[in-house]
Amino acid sequence: MHPFLNIFGFQLPTYGLMMALALISAISFSYFRTKKAGLDPDKLLNVAIFAIGIGMAGAYLFYIFVTYSPREIFASIADGSFRVFKDGGLVFYGGFIVGALTAYIACRVQKLKFSEYAAVVIPSIPLAHALGRVGCFFAGCCYGRVMQSAISVVYTNPIGGAPVGVPVFPIQLVEAFLNIVIFVILLIYTHKRLRSGTGFFLYLAMYAVVRFSLEYFRADEVRGIFLGLSTSQWISIAMLIFGVLGFIILRRKEKAAASA
User: Fold this and answer.
1) 146 - beta bridge partners?
2) pLDDT (tens digit, 9 = 90+) per residue, 193-214?
3) Are 63 and 91 in contact (CB under 8 A)?
4) Would you give the end-to-end CA distance of the chain in angstroms?
5) How many other β-carbons are positioned within 10 Å of the β-carbon of residue 82?
6) Could you read off the pLDDT of 208-244 as tens digits, one per residue?
7) How far apart are alpha carbons 15 and 56 in whole angstroms?
8) Which DSSP category does 10 fall into?
9) Strand ranges for the chain from DSSP E
10) Please, how many CA atoms are within 13 Å of residue 122, restricted to the half-sphere of its CB?
C-alpha cells in the first residue's frame, strides 16, 4: 500500500490527505444542499465547526477508552507519562455520537431545527466516511482478518498495525463501497424530503446493519469483545433500535401533520 505520497518532494500521509478530502467534501456538499433546502448555510457552518471539532476529540477519546483499561489510563496519568494519550487513533462511532450531540446542542443554542439541518447534512456523512476508509486502507489501520480470497491484499509497509506479508481481507474498501451505497440511497430518499428528519434515522439503521456485519471480518479485536460481540457491534445494536424507532415515530408525525 501507500501510507505516504510524494508530492513535489514532500512526503504526505495518505490517511491525512483522505481525511482532509473527506471533510472538504462533506462540508461543500452539505453547504450546497442547505441552500437548496432554503436553510441558512452560514448557520450550518457554525454548527459544523463545533460538531467536527468536538466530534474529532470524541473519536480520539473513544479510541483511548476502548483500547486501554481504566487502570492503564489512570496509571499513565499518575506517572506523568500520559503514554496512552500519545497513541493516536480515531473511532468513528465516538466521533459520530459526540459530533451529533454537539450539533444538536449548537442548533438549540442558535434556535435552529435540528431535524431540518440533519436532513440536509446526513448524506454527506457516509460520503466522508467512505473517503476516510480509503485512507485507512492505505495506512493499514482498521484492517481485516488474515484471509486468502480473490480480493485479499498484502501489506509491506503499513503504519496502522496491519500484519505484514500475509493476505488480509480489505475490509476498509468494502466498508467504503457500502458507505457509498448508503450515500446513494440517502440521496434518492431525501430528494423530495430535503427537510425531513427521517433521513437521519434511516442512516442510523442502515449503517448499524453494515457495521455489525463487517465487524466479523475485522481483525483489530483490541477494542474489546463482550459476550462474543465487539464494542462496535453493541453500539450498532443500540443504534439500529434507535434508528428504527426514530424513523417510525417521526414518519408517523410527518404523515399526521400532512393530513391535518
Assistant:
1) 168
2) 777 788 999 999 999 999 999 9
3) yes
4) 58
5) 10
6) 999 999 999 988 665 667 788 888 899 999 999 999 9
7) 15
8) E
9) 4-7, 10-13, 153-154, 167-168, 225-226, 229-230
10) 30
Grid coordinates belonging to 212:
455489525
Cell of 216: 466479523
DSSP letters along 78-91, please? HTT--GGGGS----
Residue % of the chain over a pLDDT of 90: 34
Sign for the CA dihedral angle at 128, 140, 16, 216 comes to: positive
Share the mean pLDDT of the chain. Answer: 86
Question: What pLDDT sits at residue 124?
Answer: 93
pLDDT value at position 14? Answer: 84
Helix (H, G, I), strand (E, B) or coil at 4: strand
Measured at the alpha carbon of residue 211, what is the angle toward residues 195 and 142, in degrees to the nearest 5? 120
Q: Please give the single-letter amino acid code of residue 257.
A: A
- Residue type, position 100, single letter: A
The DSSP letter of residue 162 is P
